[in-house]
Amino acid sequence: MLKKVLIANRGEIAVRIIRECLDCSIEAVSVYSTADKQALHTIIATKAICIGGPRAGESYLNISNIIEAAKAEKCDAIHPGFGFLSENSQFARACEENGIKFIGPASDTIDRMGNKSAARRLMVKAGVPVVPGSDGAVKDAEEAVTIADKIGYPVLLKASAGGGGRGMRKAYDKEEVREGFAAASAEAESCFGNGEMYVEKLIENPRHIEFQILADSQGNVVHLGERDCSVQRRNQKLVEEAPAWGLSSKLRDEMGAAAVKAAKAANYENAGTIEFVVDKDNQFYFIEMNTRIQVEHPVTEMVTGVNIVKEQLRIAAGLPLGFSQEDVQLSGHAIECRITAENVFANFAPCPGKVEFIHFPAGAGIRVDSALYNGCQISPFYDSMVAKIIARGDTRLEAVRRMRRALEETVITGVETTLPVQHLLMYNADFLRGGYDTSFIENHLTELLSIYEAAGGKNESL
């Protein structure tokens, strides 16, 4: 087993990984920026090392500083968490070259699956359904127009190296393709250092269904069922569920088999996620693979009983999976709300500042993943997610009721958060019916904000 692991991340995922390492009798080394000197992940780790200034480029994205910290502490492995360098093949390659185990797939696999146009070609070859579109990257806007004319409008322009909704534009005619191509390419170049683009047919208002997979170094691959991540705003997820409500057993089996096939085609190792869209006719299509642990992994843990982070550590140590596909059984239903420090009345603008007081919920079926504590600072330099509240029940309705109670118990003062909107979601009739698609928030946000304001919520922008 591993003896010492460096966690190249911050926030709640760093805290989660540190705790898992300590539970497995593995020393946990955290790294931090000058802005995070008093952050929880620096307090609970075996040792904490400052790796640079407050901006991510000076610290959490500084490959050389992280590698040097790991070498200085004689760490066996580095866990990248999610975000930052978790899907950066150069970082994985630097770990490999320095004899440090990267807790994730090989650098070549990240290259193969991180480039979305290359991943698309690989899936076609493997027989995994993909959305109709270009055969790889397109060289310019005019080639994108030619392809869009051929496959039919609307289309989605996507950055090959994109993620988190960046480098994406919808286009409903030729002019929108030309305008969107330039804007999305420039955004992708700025965010990812790669402006390469490809074109897909736009599946309007699909369901966003993803499958969690685990793969060991001996070639064993299993999936842990699916999550419905369709409650999104600007491609950012707000609520996730497992399993997906209303998905037939036949479709679940077909998608699970396709997810395993995709992972095997990529020669994948460790935890990853295969993401699909499902259209109105229940046809599913591969859209991308996230070569890391996902933010929403707790809902899968809650319904399968599989500790995904622990399995990551075991796989990185060279151990085989201790269970087969037949051993994976889904029990009950789980829902996760991502609580972010944002002002919902100011177009969800980040709301950094000092947390004056927090109280998190507890009780049957409730789990909270967070790095907050009373008096801590939410930094303006990083992602605004501050907590994940997860509720499990024997049925979806029980999970919803427990989530209502959990959100009502939660108190976070000093900063604005999305918690009130997510609480109202748990009472929304269309949400309660389940089977919603990615247009849900767009169709209901104004109504939810109006209810919140009428109930006494603040609207600072008016």
Average per-residue pLDDT, rounded, comes to: 95
Major sheet strand order: 13-12-9-10-11-14-21-19
* CATH top-level class of the largest domain: Alpha Beta
* Class per helix and strand makeup: alpha+beta
If classified by CATH, what would the architecture of the largest domain be?
2-Layer Sandwich
Characterization of the model:
The structure is a single chain. The termini are far apart. This protein folds into three domains: 4-103, Rossmann fold, CATH 3.40.50.20; 132-201, Dna Ligase, domain 1 (2-Layer Sandwich), CATH 3.30.1490; 207-454, 2-Layer Sandwich (D-amino Acid Aminotransferase, Chain A, domain 1). β2, α2 (40-44) and β3 form a beta-alpha-beta unit. It contains 15 helices and 22 strands. An eight-stranded antiparallel β-sheet has the order 13-12-9-10-11-14-21-19, sandwiched between helices. With 462 residues, it is α+β, with helices and mostly antiparallel strands. Helices cover 35% and strands 27% of the residues. The protein has helices at residues 11-23, 40-44, 63-72, 89-97, 107-114, 116-126, 141-151, 174-192, 249-265, 297-304, 308-316, 396-409, 419-425, 429-433, 440-454; strands at 4-7, 27-33, 47-52, 77-79, 101-102, 155-163, 166-171, 197-201, 207-215, 221-233, 236-242, 270-278, 284-290, 333-340, 342-343, 349-350, 353-354, 357-359, 366-370, 377-378, 385-393, 411-413. α4 packs antiparallel against α5 (107-114), α7 (141-151) packs across α8 (174-192) and α12 runs antiparallel to α13. The longest helix is centred in the middle third of the chain and has 19 residues, at 174-192. The model has no long low-confidence stretch (mean pLDDT 95).
